[in-house]
Write a structure and sequence with these properties.
The protein is mainly α and 80 residues long. The protein is rod-shaped. It has four helices and no strands. The longest helix is centred in the first third of the chain and has 39 residues.
Length: 80
Amino acid sequence: MSESQQGHHHHVVHDIVERITEHHEQAVRRREEEALAEAVETATFDLGTDIAHPTAGHDRVSYDVETDLGVDGELAERRA
């Protein structure tokens, strides 16, 4: 292989490596964005309650940890 062919070969391989790296980085970003979107959709807390803004049914207290944890209405013995 001549020197010019080796240079061309090196350039082609370098381009392929760059494209694969870029594709991998895009795939990682896409997975992270999808995971974040899913986490937002499935969040099980009430932000209004967490920042002390009462919601319907919480007139007496503005922060209800039992509701936020999803144990609202359970017997005290079951939570212990």
